[in-house]
Write a structure and sequence with these properties.
Length: about 140
Amino acid sequence: MSVEEAMAEAERAGLDLVEISPKATPPVCRLMDYGKFKYQQSKRQHAAKQHQKVTHLKEVKMRPKIEEHDFQFKLRNAIRFLEDGDKVKVLVMFMGRQIARKELGLALLERFQQELGEKAVLEQPAKSEGRSMFMILSPPKKK
């Protein structure tokens, strides 16, 4: 039907003529209450935003000479973060002359990764930056 006929029909029904698909040939239009249409559209967008999962980067800091209990505590926190779906940045900070023994930090990061096992996927391998060394772990993909 022509645009004029459609406008007249919408006027008689007390509704609006809304273009649904402008790229189609001919363009698809519908008679509806435009205010109600916009409201439903915003509700759908809000619902889609509610179901989105935002991943955060959580940080676990250690020193090269960490005690066993402290190490296990940091490990449990990292596991909890990974189970929540967040990425974990494991950071080893060197103080004073410890910077000369970077192999201690690297061994600590490797041990941390091995303790996690299948609970984490290495996203970024160990990297030295200034007086610290870090690696980034992410949760495994769900099957």
